[in-house]
Amino acid sequence: MFLRPIHFIPPDTKIDFVSKRWWAFSVSIILLVITILSLAVKGLNLGIDFKGGILIEAKASQAVDVAALRTAIGTLNLGEVELQQYGSPDDVLIRIQRQEGDEAAQMKAIQNVRDKLGTEYEYRRVEVVGPTVGTELLHAGILATVLAMAAISLYVGVRFEWQFGLAALIATFHDVLTVVGLFSFLQLDFNLTSVAAILTLAGYSINDTVVVFDRIRETLRRQKTTDLRAVINDSVNQTLSRTTMTAGTTLLALLPLLLIGGPTLINFSAALTWGILVGTYSSIYVAAALLLYMPPLKRVEVGRVAKV
Question: N or C: more exposed end of the chain, with fewer CB within 10 A?
Fold first, then answer.
């Protein structure tokens, strides 16, 4: 007995995505304008990783209650505080924003934390990260994101044609920038975890886009006389079930992190949740439609056709 494939979207769906491209482009333009205005007015709420601050790595005598520890340190009025468990349940990493004043002010804050935690903790590492190091980390994060997007687009351009690579670069840039706009608009902490979320999103977004592009290339090879608009519509419809299923199952895993993951995971989960929604929308409506405004594509097989 063979199991039948599950189709949440009927395989014979015939949605005219191309005719709605201007609505999609309008939504994208609005999102990008909001992002640019928010970055210009509010900027990014840089976290401790980029602004500099105090880093304390400690080991407790028993499993750490992160919520209670966060409340206890919060009574010291030291500003932004981040706590993260790592390794075993009794290991905790404490990040505190840089205090106003000189080195003496940083040392006083460290001593206040030690006094609050008491003798139950063993302090394995205590560092003060200056703003210069934070700025270097920010520049490194931006460079990593740009290089990742360029490498992904180069791969798509070589694997397919340069038109696909350019469309993928624009769509990925669109997705990444709108996620940065979310951090700015909601003033979420932007730190190294946020950069990791953006890099993860870039890879996820390009994966959906490549699936659609591969189907377009395969259809062009089979239907050499079909209008490109019809080819794009057919290809997006044929991969629509796969695209929505992938996004849906990923969101099912992310929503618990977003809703009950606590303050430690909120930035990462919010960025990925928003990014997956925007990335799925751009893969369906934006990326493929951009091919209409580029030089004609080849209608012959280029390399091995992957099966979706």
Answer: N
Q: What are phi and psi of 75, to 5 degrees?
A: -70, -10
For residue 308, pLDDT beyond 50: no
- Answer yes or no: is pLDDT of 186 > 80: yes
Q: What is the DSSP string of 200-267?
A: HHHHHHHHHHHHHHHHHHHHHHH-TTS-HHHHHHHHHHHHHHHHHHHHHHHHHHHHHHHHHS-TTTHH
Burial class (CB in 10 A: 0-12, 13-18, 19+), 19: exposed
Q: How far apart are CA 274 and CA 204, in angstroms?
A: 12
Q: What pLDDT, in 10s, does the model give residues 110-166?
A: 888 888 877 778 888 777 776 666 677 778 778 887 888 788 778 777 777 788 888
DSSP one-letter code for 112: H
Within 8 A by CB and 6+ apart from 291, the residues are 163, 164, 167, 216, 228, 232, 297
Q: At what angle do helices 131-159 and 192-222 cross, to 10 degrees?
A: 10
- φ/ψ of 84, rounded to 5, equals -145, 125
pLDDT category of residue 303 using cuts at 50, 70 and 90: very low
